[in-house]
Each structure stands twice: as C-alpha cells, then as structure tokens.
Design goal:
By secondary structure, this protein is an alpha+beta fold. It contains four helices and ten strands.
Length: 211
C-alpha cells in the first residue's frame, strides 16, 4: 500500500514538503516498524497482536486523516505492556520526525469528543516539551486483550517521544470501551488541528523562533 500520497499538495495557497516518516524499534521485548504520512487520507494497516489496540490505532488514523502502517511483534506471552508502551514510543517518534521543524503549523489543537454516553477532552501543544496530564478512572481491568491502565502508558509514551504537551480528561465517564475510544479519536482530531497549516504563521508559532 502506498501511504505517501500527495493530498497536502492540493491545499490552496500552501507550500509544504512531504511530511512522512519511518521508524524501527527492535528490542528483546518488541520489534516495531512504522510508516506515517501526516497529510494522508486516513488509511491504515495495523498489526500489534492486540485486537482492541489495533482498533484504537485504526480509529486514530481514520479520524486524524493520518496514513499509518504499523506492525509490532511483542512479548504478549508476558502481557500487553511492552507492546503498547513501545508502540507509543514509535508513534511519537514518527510524528516528531514527520513534522520536522514544524514550519507554518498551528502548533495547538483541541477537541471535545462525544462517544455515546461519554465525553472526553483532548488538548495538544507541539511545543517540543513533553508533558502528559491524564484524568480518567476505569471500572474494568481490561477491554478485550488490552489492560485499561495501558491507555495512560500509551499516551505518556507518545507525548514524551514526540515532545508534545498532551492533556486528556474524561469529562463524562461511562463504558470503558467508549472512554478509551473517545481518547484515541479526540487525540486524532486535536493532533490533526495542531499539525495543520496557517498561512499567517511566519516560520514557527513561537516567540523563541523554534519549537
């Protein structure tokens, strides 16, 4: 599958380079290969061995209009921790690499997303400074083959490997599946906004001159 489409080149009045990246992570616990196109159309090919986690990453790709190919072989005979955490590290890495110097991007993005009875807020700042604020309480230990506590570990890994300020807060809790799915979708929408271009921005949106 060709994930490196030229969708971004069709945006009127915008000049941009291809925002694609690749990352590989091989350890004794996981072997991960990822390809990302920031300016995609929401296509994905995900294989982590954890069905619910695959579903969440597919939702992230689709709702953020990111083309993402990711394959992970992990020590699932132990548990899901290493697979999910290391996937977060790799996803954060390819986001950071694809954005490059972040020239012309909005930098900030936010979304309040409903998922049936639940409501979740996500806010992103692509500042280069890693920080995660995560406010959610689960009532189940697992959803499918994914431990619910791994949602926080995943977003922590993404935020620190990418260098982003990331806030996730469940405003109205409910079904644990819905809560986690709302997190991934709201993150996708907020990140898509933050990665978008604004013609008024000269170089980068920072008084320091760099991000």
């Amino acid at each position: 599958m060709d994930f490196y489409s030229a969708r971004g080149a069709d945006r009127k009045g915008e000049q941009q380079m291809s925002r694609t990246a690749e990352a590989v992570r091989n350890t004794k616990e996981t072997q991960i290969h990822a390809l990302l196109d920031i300016d995609g159309s929401g296509k994905s090919s995900i294989e982590t061995g954890i069905g619910f986690f695959d579903h969440m990453l597919e939702g992230f790709s689709r709702h953020g209009f990111f083309d993402l190919a990711l394959k992970c072989g992990g020590d699932l005979q132990v548990d899901c921790h290493h697979t999910i955490e290391d996937t977060g590290i790799v996803l954060g890495t390819v986001i950071k690499k694809a954005l490059g110097e972040k020239t012309g991007i909005r930098r900030f993005g936010s979304c309040i997303l409903p998922m049936d009875e639940t409501l979740t807020l996500c806010a992103v700042d692509l500042s280069g400074r890693p920080y995660l604020s995560f406010d959610a309480e689960f009532t189940a230990e697992r959803v499918g083959d994914m431990d619910t506590e791994m949602a926080k570990e995943f977003f922590y890994a993404v935020s620190y490997s990418c260098g982003m300020n990331l806030h996730i807060k469940v405003l109205t809790p409910g079904n644990n599946h819905h809560m986690i799915e709302a997190m991934f979708k709201s993150f996708a929408k907020a990140l898509d906004m933050a990665c978008g271009y604004d013609s008024r921005i000269d170089h980068v949106l920072s008084t320091k001159g760099s991000l």
